[in-house]
Write the structure tokens for this entry.
Amino acid sequence: MPPVARHPVRLLIATPLRPGRTKVGLNMGTALAELGHSVEFFDYDDRPPLMQITPRVLRGQDWPARQRDYVNRRLLDRARAFRPDVFLAVKALQIHPETVGELAAMGIRTVGYWIDDPIQSDRSLALAPAYQHYFTNDASSLARYRDAGLVHVHHLPSSADTRMFRPLANVRPFADVIFVGTRTDRREEILGRLQDFDMRVYGPGWRKSSLRRSCVYPEAFGSLTNRVYNSARINLNIHAWFGHGSAMNLRLFEVPAAGAFLLTDWVAEIDAAYVDGEHLACWRDLGELREKIAYYLAHEAERRRIARQGREHFLRNHAYTTRVETVLAIAFAQT
């Protein structure tokens, strides 16, 4: 890895700021500030004042385009005032490629980060050429960018906010097996075959599923998600994009950060990030899943040891400070 950038670096980060939107940009900015860098955030969801007070039914069809133009003008104004060394955009669909080019012409290093590969890849392929450095959360997607002639794309896995996800003391278990995530057909099929275990399922869409009502719970967000992780003997993970790409989803980082035990379906990137049986446990088919649930429920000391080692490993190797150091090292590498 090239040396980390000089200190301090001034960064302008384009990311949504309102609740309910992705916090990746905010988390990266917080980590950069912890490392001594100067950070300002730019909310690319911002709307013109007139749009904020005009009811949706009265807005014209051109208002989305007007909003994007407004956001891009404000971004350029902010960049001229702040004079950042680096512009970092996290899934910034609202930022025009021409705007990114103007930022680069000001001498600002431009960095994009797409956090939803291997899905929505066509949208990312349209954004990537505008940036001097571009990152994807999915290593297997690099070939797709290379095939499109984009050689400036790098792999950057996800992470978790350690202020949000952390061990909690004196939390009583809610259930033996807990799953947190949106309903998909594959997830419903698998969880439907685990209903003989003491199980809880949290997330959107499950109320209308075939799972028995007693194991379905409302969505869990923020600090409640952390409490749920801490209240499971086994946190089960099932990737929504299984069979498409190699990326690890957020559960691979949130659960270890919480100091909880994770039993996850295997995806290719796990082997380079964790050690099965030391930091978490993996399953590859339903038979192995059922066997490992039974095994780890019967071996509490081993389960607790793996959870503890998983958190220690996460903090050393996968925290946001590690991720942003990688970004800066690549952005400031000599070419």
Observations:
- The chain has 13 helices and twelve strands.
- The mean pLDDT is 93.
